[in-house]
Batch of 2 targets.
Target 1
Amino acid sequence: MTEKTTPLWEVFIRSRTGMAHRHCGSVHAADAEMALQAARDVYTRRGEGLSIWVVPSSEIIASDPAQKDELFEPTASKIYRHPTFYEIPEEVGNM
Amino acid sequence: MYTQALNARDTEAGAVEDADRVAAFQARVDAEEKIEPNDWMPEGYRKTLVRQISQHAHSEIVGMLPEGNWISRAPTLKRKAALLAKVQDEGGHGLYLYSAAETLGVSREELTEQLLSGKAKYSSIFNYPTLTWADIGAIGWLVDGAAIMNQIPLCRCSFGPYSRAMIRVCKEESFHQRQGYELLLEMVRSSEEQKEMVQDALNRWWWPSLMMFGPSDTDSQHSAQSMAWKIKRFTNDELRQKFVDATVPQAHYLGLTIPDDKLSFNEATGHWEFGEIDWDEFMRVIAGNGPCNRERLAARKKAHADGAWVREAALAYSRKRADRREAARHAAE
């Protein structure tokens, strides 16, 4: 068979609850319009969403898992970025 | 929705892997970290997953055939709508799973080719025919019931995309089993004749449903590796026992007899004990010689061939529109 492979699209759906669009999977489709239709059929059969984004998978730029430590490890030691780092007397009340 | 532990593990064909990396990988798995597609993984882990996930996907797609057979003959509009929705779900489940397999570096076209050429397996249960309307109820109750037993532990599988696909599938699956059981309940309450149809369906689907859990643990030396990799969480026999324990009381509630004269409840263990599965039949069906193997594959091949012009036209149209956009951009410059 001489057919070209059908492009892959990543699917993002915004749920009813007012959350941001969230990645939920992928579909193959020849073009953007068909990708939207396929995403609707595959990922919203039970009222999961109110809005769909499809993005060509080839356009996603991802961080390298090998760089995980240098990218994310430094934040582990910065405990002063969290509210619980600071002592507030109980008398002050909820803060 | 349907998986089957076929337990044909791929051996790492002479591949020498860095012992440190293998140890680091196993440590991550042991710590219950999820493995993601771009992470380093042993070749055996990748191959095992590609095979298992794609077989699972193929099972969903082939599984649409025995039920689809009854859509146009459903007895009421309610049952027809439910069956249509169920069969559409199975198609959706197949697509979630193909996507998960593709993250491991295999293309959708290759996976389809493996199914159509007969190289890839799918669950043996779909090689049995759906002879009466009661079979549609029996599939929902028993086949989806067995699948749920298999799939709930797969939600905790170490491979992230497979685990996420299983969570979606399990959320949707409960309806499949319930609609089947309700359908049977309505039949057994309707007339003696319909109750006999239901008993006949149970007689034919019971043993093939038990076979869905794959070979017995004593014949399956591959389970250990899948368990160590946390792809599997329970052995085939453990899952089969859970299924029998859950299903026997449901059969009794319907007023049916399980077609197994060795079936008895063991008060001491709290488990139902059952007779020996006909493993010759299992091997025969897996090898391609069940009642409907040829018919199922022929139907998938025909669907693929009949859809070829649609795939070609859609790609040609997208190319034409891309070319026009390009031409318009040049003209504007």
Target 2
Amino acid sequence: MIAGMTLVTFGIRYLLLPLSGHIPFPDGLQRALRFVPPAVLTAIIVPAALMPDGSALQLSHTNPYLVGAVLTALIGWLSRHLLVTIVCGMAGFAAWQWILSRWA
Amino acid sequence: MEKISQQRPVACAPDRPPGAGATRNAEFWAGARDTLPLIIGAIPFGIIFGTLAGGAGLSAAATMGMSLFVFAGSAQFIAVGLVGAGTAWPMIVLTTLVVNFRHLLYTATLLPHLRRLPRRWQVVLAFGLTDETFVVAAGHWADADPGEHKQWYQLGSMAFMYTNWNLCTLVGLLAGRVLQHIGGWGLDFAMVAAFIGMVIPYLTDKPAYATVLVSGACAVTFHGLPYQLGLIIAALVGMAAGVIVERRLRAGH
């Protein structure tokens, strides 16, 4: 199982490199790839924040993942500092979870 | 090492910051340093993986083997879940393939830079092309400075991620019993926080906003699809939205 997982993971990450000399790389595609990081990261973040149990949308202040994500985005927007964003975002999430456990 | 670099004059200061003429050493450590914030997000993730794997019935050797050889966080998590559910191994390998499919986009993005490197560099850097290292390295490759050793920057980032990931897996394994309920502490939010921090620098123009909005909406809409297919669809549709908005803006001016 692990050998198979290793093979497919490395295969996907490596595949295009030896082929790169043989496939055309049009300009339009090149421009589209600029959007890869925000597109992939957002597609991971948004469901994790809005549907933490993996099925239903939880658009409520009782969903600490949503509150934490909004808070982290705000801090990130204002601070423009990655480390500050992550640490304060995690702290905010933990604090909100604690508040909910006490009063909700 | 590489012939090109041996021909260069040895005028570089040993620890110049990255930029034009940065040394291999400087690039390597700059890559590691720039990955540090993301390491903080990955630490709980790795520890939780170590604790969960034991609980799902994976042996200690198999758990470490996964972190050492597969080195793909989200795929490893899903594999552990499937092992716990008694899924047959070919199905787990297939799921890994689909979950990691986004990495094909990563290699495609870095292709103009990586294609010039020797084969062994390509093999090593491809092995370590995680979400985090990709985002950090993509930013550095895109910088205009003509650094000649930028591959060392990516190597520094991946080496740091790799060491940390395996140490955290080990800690999770060893502390398994004590930390059994760690999943309930919400430390899994660390990854969300790290990824949000990684997206924000990209929000510089309208096409980027379109990408993020459309990708996020599609990810929620298609979340019910199996094997995280929704993630791939959302990413591709989001990228298309970015390209379309960019074209419109260009046509308008």
